[in-house]
Specification:
Helix content is about 10%, strand content about 35%. The protein is mainly beta and about 575 residues long. The two termini are about 25 Å apart.
């Protein structure tokens, strides 16, 4: 990634607030990318979306920066894509916070059907805008006297849609040659997903807001393609109708997705190392180890259960979670052995699927724990064990690597955390041995985090919540060589799904215990003035902390076909 026309900038640490300038520091992965094995279109730098072809631009020229906020951590800058390949056109400008290295992208596009094509029976895929509308202009509303900035929305021709906004540092309208609009049948709806800037100008009472954008149609079957541009307005909020659109992938072949050899290359290159807390006692195991060591298939009316075949071939497949079957521990002394897992056998189970219209690949890495341990509650400096609250047999956790199909570059990782999770840019990850990131598994609960420390599931501001303790230890599993690809639907018969993946019931029994009484005991030990707040917090506990039933398997999760939560 390159930046031009930017001077006097340094990378700012979290504690350095002396400079609000846009930063010239550009993030790059610790190690160079390898030459991916031969394939159809993965890693070639350009992606065919049907009637148009797109390329990813990581080189930018600074246009304008907002210093209107007194909170210097919220300052953002706006950039114009540069070094655009011949024949391609910009779709809009880019925005990102100042206090992070440059790591984003925007797409540029070209029409795949030339004007000389004798079979051309439709309008061009790309056309310049008819005009520009001024959406907002900056002033020195907070006395900081920023240089002026002007935000323009391209006015698209009939039956065409704008993909992004254009920013200038003078009042003259942008040139029509600077941007292109896309024919409406080649675009999809998009939505805002992350507030980048909210500020008031001197003479306006309505805030000016800048948002990231994402396709509405996401997930494994979604066709929406993110352009990397931003949206802005003084009129609407997140979730309202957008004044711009995103692209749509009309290429049903998904030719930019990696083939099986390339998937193995990607896992070997990027597979994270999962570190467990030094005091962890409930480790993962392979699914086959769990089955071989006495796991039982139970059925309503036959609670003793039957042994499960090592490959899970005798599990009922398909259907839904109807409560008729579930898995449980062995009933003999082997139970205590199984409960603590077997790290030596543990492996990551990888589901590979298209993301953002096949311009990215999501590698969802599932890890199985025979047992989820009890939760620990923190209030201020006090830590209280919650007995059996949070315990359950069978624990499926995951994290997701999102890889750009343009060059095979790791974009981000999704860290699943109980009932939610968070996407973390590659620039904010810890790496070990080249481009392999570190994933920290929290003690007992096994949620995934990008850095060591104590994370509270609750209110960090008040210091009240369930503890998620993460630290590095000698206990770990390396997913770059201990993995199994369990599904990649777009590859057809190239990947055979294991029998146990079709088990749609629960991987643990329903356990009834009076967790509310345990929580009430905790509340009674607290000062009277905070009991009400803590009781309200307990009432918002997610279901998996109640410890009342085991989880379903990976294929029953919403993110199997859908996108991760953003």
């Amino acid at each position: 990634m390159m930046l031009k026309n930017m001077v006097g900038c340094k990378f700012l640490s979290k504690d350095d607030s002396s400079d609000n300038s846009p930063c010239t520091n550009t993030f790059s992965l610790p190690a160079p990318l390898p030459n991916w094995s031969q394939g159809q279109g993965f890693g070639t730098g350009k992606i065919n979306l049907g009637e148009i072809e797109v390329a990813e631009i990581n080189s930018f020229e600074f246009i304008w920066g907002s210093h209107l906020s007194h909170d210097k951590r919220k300052c953002v800058s706006f950039y114009k894509p540069i070094d655009i390949p011949e024949g391609f056109f910009s779709l809009g400008h880019y925005c990102q916070p100042n206090k992070k290295p440059m790591c984003g992208f925007v797409l540029v596009a070209r029409d795949l059907v030339t004007s000389n094509d004798s079979e051309r029976a439709r309008s061009p895929a790309l056309l310049p805008p008819c005009d520009y509308s001024l959406v907002w202009k900056s002033d020195d509303g907070m006395g900081i006297y920023d240089p002026p900035g002007y935000f323009w929305l391209p006015e698209s021709p009939p039956r065409y849609k704008a993909m992004g906004f254009v920013v200038t540092n003078n009042p003259d309208k942008p040139s029509w040659a600077d941007i292109r609009c896309i024919r409406e049948d080649l675009v999809d709806d998009c939505q805002s997903c992350g507030l980048l800037l909210e500020t008031y100008s001197k003479f306006q009472k309505i805030p000016f807001k800048v948002w990231k954008t994402r396709p509405c149609d996401r997930g494994m079957l979604g066709k929406g393609v993110s352009t990397g541009t931003f949206s802005c307005t003084t009129l609407w909020n997140a979730g309202d109708e957008m004044p711009i659109s995103c692209l749509k992938n009309s290429d049903t072949d998904l030719r930019a997705m990696p083939n099986l050899d390339q998937i193995h290359n990607l896992i070997h290159h990027y597979g994270p190392t999962v570190f467990f807390h030094p005091k962890e006692v409930f480790f993962p195991s392979s699914v086959s180890w769990f089955f071989r060591n006495g796991a039982r298939l139970c059925k309503v009316g036959h609670r003793k259960g039957d042994p499960v075949d090592p490959d899970g071939s005798n599990l009922p497949g398909g259907g839904s979670n109807d409560g008729e079957f579930w898995l449980d521990f062995p009933s003999d002394d082997q139970k205590d052995i199984v409960k603590h897992g077997n790290l030596e056998s543990a492996e990551l189970y990888v589901h590979v699927k298209p993301a953002l219209g096949g311009t990215f690949t999501d590698m969802v890495m599932w890890i199985f724990f025979p047992f989820n341990g009890p939760a620990t509650f923190k209030i201020g400096p006090t830590t209280i064990a919650l007995g059996r609250t949070g315990e359950h047999v069978g624990d499926w956790e995951h994290f997701t690597l999102r890889i750009s199909n343009f060059a095979g570059r790791l974009d981000s990782i999704y860290f699943s955390q109980h009932s939610g999770g968070v996407w973390v840019d590659a620039s904010n990850l810890e790496f070990i041995e080249g481009n392999r990131a570190i994933v920290y598994s929290s003690k007992s609960g096994h949620a995934s985090y990008p850095h060591p420390g104590t994370y509270l599931q609750g209110s960090s501001k008040l210091g009240i919540g369930i503890r998620n303790d993460c630290a590095r230890s000698y206990q770990h599993v390396d997913s770059s060589n201990k993995y199994q690809i369990i599904a990649a639907e777009y590859l057809g018969s190239s990947v055979t799904e294991p029998c146990w993946l079709q088990f749609m019931r629960e991987w643990g029994p329903k356990v009834v215990y009076k967790s509310r009484k345990e929580l009430d005991k905790v509340i009674k030990k607290l000062p009277i003035m905070i009991r009400g707040s803590v009781r309200n917090f307990f009432n918002k506990f997610p279901a998996e902390l109640s410890g009342e039933e085991g989880p379903t398997g990976p294929k029953e999760k919403n993110n199997w076909y859908g996108d991760e939560r953003w």
